[in-house]
Structure formats: structure tokens, C-alpha cells
Amino acid sequence: MTRQHSPTPDAAPPGHSHPGNTPAGKGTSATEWWRDAVIYQIYPRSFADGNGDGMGDLPGIRGRLGHLRDLGVDAVWLSPFYASPQADAGYDVADYRATDPLFGTLADAEAVIREAHHQGLRVIIDIVPNHCSDQHAWFRRAVAEGPGSVLRDRFHFRKGRGDNGELPPNDWESVFGGPAWTRLPDGEWYLHLFAPEQPDFNWDHPAVQDEFRSILRFWLDLGIDGFRVDVAHGMVKAPGLPDIGHGEQARLIGSQVLPFFDQDGVHAIYRSWRTILDEYPGERIGVAEAWAPTIERLARYVRPDELHQGFNFHYLNTRWDAEELRTAIDTSLTALGAVGAPATWVLSNHDLVRHRTRLGGGLDRARAATLLMLALPGSAYLYQGEELGLPEVTDLPDEVRQDPSFFRASGQEGLRDGCRVPLPWSGTEPPYGFGAGDTWLPQPDDWAALTVKAQTGDPASTLELYRGALAIRRAHPGLGAGDAVEWLAAPDGVLVFRRPGGLLCTVNTTAETVRLALPPVRQLLSSRVPFVASSSPAVSPSLSAARQPSNAPRDETVPENREVSEVREIPADTAIWWAE
Predict the structure, then answer these.
(1) Are strands 285-288 and 226-229 parallel, antiparallel or unpaired?
(2) In what order do the strands lie in the sheet with 189-191?
(3) Residues 464, 454: contact at Cβ < 8 Å?
(4) For residues 438 and 431, is the Cβ–Cβ distance under 8 A?
(5) Which amino acids are annotated catalytic?
(6) Do strands 379-383 and 38-42 pair parallel, antiparallel, or not at all (unpaired)?
(7) I want to staple 12 with a disulfide (CB 3.0 to 4.6 A). Which of 117, 146, 353, 558 is the partner?
(8) Quick check: 503 and 476 in contact, CB under 8 A?
């Protein structure tokens, strides 16, 4: 597929149902923009504060959209800003058609959508269908009406086990730790795979299905371009809610086979949703945050009549190891290509340790991992702040933490706050231009050099690396959409692959500089300032094997035919893009 270029900053996305655009399906050809889109995740409470209360909000987002335009992304994904008691940072939704006052008003949400489209950015929002808040009108009424209420059928209410119903209905555990059941004073138990404040919907009930179809239409009518489906592998539970039969702690992301995740029944839901998405002009999309035991199971979520993309957690969980990375890349491309879906690549998000810290190796390795990801065929997701090279904040004191799982005895590690620290925009001390006052999580005192302002214009900065990489990715015919890579011979610890259109990518995952014999190429972009801080003397990018001194060290990767190859030195933890 030929890469489709995003609109200019002053235009709405092509095919979008906004003034000056012809709706898709009426004389226009589909762009399939989502096949190679770079999508930037905004965690609203940590992006920008528009009213000075220390919490990021929708006006703050609207005022900073120019940063994302300049960065060169195609779309933004907003984590939840719905009305919510914030028991789980907005993933406990009380009203799916309202904006929480913490973030602004529904008018503010509409203004963000309009401004994003004006800047040439599409907008994807979270939808949270597995569970709601215990303050949702349905659940509150179900509790108030007591056993026998018809509204209890829209959730999973059960009588307990034991002589007096004092034991949970089964042995399921919450992902956040402890039993997945909470008992009400009237004696019945309700299911929550996450916090007790997040009761699970019963997706066998027609009213639940109807309600979410209506919610989708509500936001599509307001102009959003797609939904990221939270816990897309949840929703449907195995008939009879059978015991698991073991004591292993349930995890949101892992290889476990569980009776409440990745059930075949979820696919009928997404086929229903796809018909709604396809009714709207502009190629509106659905993105699955789905974890399945295998990449082949994940591919089922993105078959042609279901969702458009699925997060590739298999790749995200791969270590910085050339062999493992190549296996993950090949497996992903094969499984997703078999159903005609694009691969997606992601390194960080709001639930995980930032990849600069998680991968080890510091900023050099993080930058190399980014160039590798952006060179792969398909769509890429960026998490706010990674373009600044932000590390995980690992020294937050216990008294400031707000991750709900931190306060539970087991479950997730409870340390998600470290990747949610508010962004630094400018200045030499906190709050670094985030807002007018203190921030909801404290920022480190040593982030002055990491601000957007400090990095802008510095060719060695991580921000300018991202800007340059995304500009090249947009322009070069060898980057973006596609379904395969051509692997070239490389020594252990090194990846070398070619993309159509004359793009070559080399990645050194080892701790030492390596010498590679490559076809005649010129360097487009290096994850390091070219050949600086290498473990060997600096080498000119134009150095060829034929020009090396006669006493140069031999390398088994250097062929005897020196007329058709050039020897290049690739520093440790470095990725380089080359044009053939």
C-alpha cells in the first residue's frame, strides 16, 4: 500500500465529515489511514493543566495540540475523561455521555475534537465496556432495589457459597488483588475483575449491548474518529462462571487462559460495533486493548469484520534481544497479515514502566528501540513524554501515590504512578510549565533539560529525534504501511532488514560497536548523534571498506567483493536508518 499523507495542519483529516470534506463512500477512495498511522496517547490528567488546579484537563490539551502537530503524529488517543469518581483514574465510568468536571465540560471535549481536526489530527477516545463505576445509575439502582431487581441482571450478582452464603460465588481473583467479588449488606455478591468500585457488566443482557451501541453513536456524532476499547478481551465470561481451580494471581497482561478473558463470545460484540463504525464517513476505527495467550488469538480481534487494530503486547513484552525481537516481529506480521490487519507496535503506555527504564540501557537503548519500532510495517503508538526521553519516576513517596492497586495486598505491582507524572513543558523547576501551581503527582527536580522548550531546536535531543523520525517516516516510501520485512544476514545481536522503497534499518542490541558490510547506502537518521559516544573511534558515515587502511581489523561480516558493499560501524544500543 502506498503511504497516505496526513493533512496539512490547517485541514481536517481527509474523508472526515467536517466542512470541506467529502464523506468516504461517496465518490472518494478509502485511505485506510489507520494502517500506518502514528497515534499519540494523551493521559489527560498528566498532559497539560489549563485551569491551574494541578490536574491536567481538556482546555490544557486543546492549548498544546500544536506540539503534536509539530511532532508529526497522525492521531491522538485520549484516556478517559468521562464523569467518574476517579477510583481508578477515570476507568470507573459513572456516565459515558458526560465529562468529569475535573477535566472540563462536554463543550470542552467538543472543542478539543474541533481543534484537533483543525490541526490535522484525528481523535480516538477510550471506551470502557467491561465495567463501570459503582456510582453508575444502573448499579446504584440495582443495589438500592435489592435482590430480585431486574437491573441486577445487567451485572453479575450471585448468591455466595457456604452454609450462609458467606463465601464468594467462585474462586476468581481481581486483577488488582483479592477476590473478584464483593458482598453487599443484603447478602448477594457482585463481580468486579478490577477494583470493588468497578462492577462488571453482564454482556449477555440485551440492554447492555443496546446501551453501548448508543454510546458509540453519541461520540461518533460528536466527530470522534475511533475508540480504543479498554480490556477488549474481557466483557464475556464463560457460561456458569466456573472456578479457575488454582491460586495464581490473575493478570491483565499475561499468557494465562482464564474463564473471564478472551472468550469467543466477544467477537460477536465487535462485529456489531464494526457495522456502526462503517456507517460513519471518514473511516472511523476500533482499537482493541486485548491480551490473548497467543498472537494468533489476538489476530481474531482484527479480522475484516471486527476491529481495525489491536495492541501488540507480545512485542511490547519482548526483551532487548535481537533474536527475541526478530521472532516477535515475524510472528506478529505473519499472524496479523493472515487476517489482513496491520501490525501495531508500542513501547510504553499509562500502565507500564516507561521503556527508557524498563528496557535497561538508559536513553541510548530507548532511542534505538523507538527507531526500530518506527521502521516496522504498520501502525505505531507513542505514549506522552517518551518523545522527551522521560524516565520512569521510581522514587515517588508512598504518601503521594494514587494507583488503586498500590493500596491492595496483591495484584498488579501498584506502581503505575511512575509513568503518569505530569509532563514538563518549559522552565527550570516544577511545575515546568504544566500549569500554574503544584501538580497532582510531584515532578522530579532534575527535569529542566527534558522540557519541550529545552529540547526544541537541539539536534541531539530526543524530541528532535522523534520529530525527524516522524518526518522521514511520512515522506519515505519505504516506511509506514506494509506487511513484511526482508531480513539480511547479520551477526549475533544485530538486526538488519530492508523495507520496500530503498530503506534499510540496522539495530545493534549488543554492548559493543559492531562492523557491518552493507550495500551502498547513505545515513538518514541515527538514534545517536552520528557515531558519537561509541566504544570505538568515531568513523565517518561515508567510510567504505575500500578506503580503510590496510591494517584495519578484519571482520567476518565483510565480504571479499568490496565493490558492492561498504563497512559501517554501528555503536552499541543504536538503530540507524539508511537510504539505498
Answers:
(1) parallel
(2) 157-158, 189-191, 181-183
(3) no
(4) yes
(5) 230, 279
(6) parallel
(7) 117
(8) yes
What is each CA distance from 557 to 69, 340, 518, in whole angstroms? 42, 36, 9
Joined together, the cell numbers standing for residue 221 give 456524532
The 10s digit of each residue's pLDDT in 311-334 is 998 899 999 999 999 999 999 999
Q: CA-CA distance, 45 to 441, in Å (whole number)?
A: 10
Beta sheet of 503-508, edge-to-edge order = 486-487, 494-499, 503-508, 574-579, 522-526
Which residue reads 513484552 in cell numbers?
317
For 4, 15, 132, the CA distances from 153, given in Å and listed in that order, are: 47, 41, 15
**What is the predicted pLDDT for the residue at 176?**
84
Alpha helices in 169-265 (DSSP H): 206-221
Strand partners, 88: none
Encode pLDDT of 197-220 as tens digits: 999 999 999 999 999 999 999 999
Q: Using alpha carbons, select from 163, 160, 181, 162 the residue that is nearest to residue 172.
A: 181
Q: Assign 98 to helix, strand or coil.
A: strand
Torsion of CA 67, 527, 381, 19, to 10 degrees: 40
What per-residue confidence (pLDDT) applies to 124? 98
Does the pTM exceed 0.90? Answer: no
- Cα separations in angstroms, 419 against 62, 381, 473: 22, 16, 26
- 573, burial (CB in 10 Å: exposed 0-12, middle 13-18, buried 19+): buried
Site of grid cell 431487581: 149
Q: What are phi and psi of 107, to 5 degrees?
A: -60, -35
Whether residue 248 has pLDDT greater than 80: no
Cβ neighbour number for residue 82 with a 10 Å cutoff: 24
Q: Are 391 and 385 in contact (CB under 8 A)?
A: no
Q: How many helices (H) and strands (E) does the chain have?
A: 13, 20
Residue 284: how many other CB atoms lie within 10 Å: 25
Each residue of 121-155: b (16+ CB within 10 Å) or e? Answer: bbbbbbbbbbbbbbbbebbeebbeeeeeeebbebb
Cα dihedral 534, 466, 80, 265 sign: negative
How far is residue 257 from each of residues 178, 250, 410, 536, measured CA to CA in Å?
A: 19, 10, 20, 48
* Other C-beta atoms lying within 10 Å of the C-beta of residue 445: 9
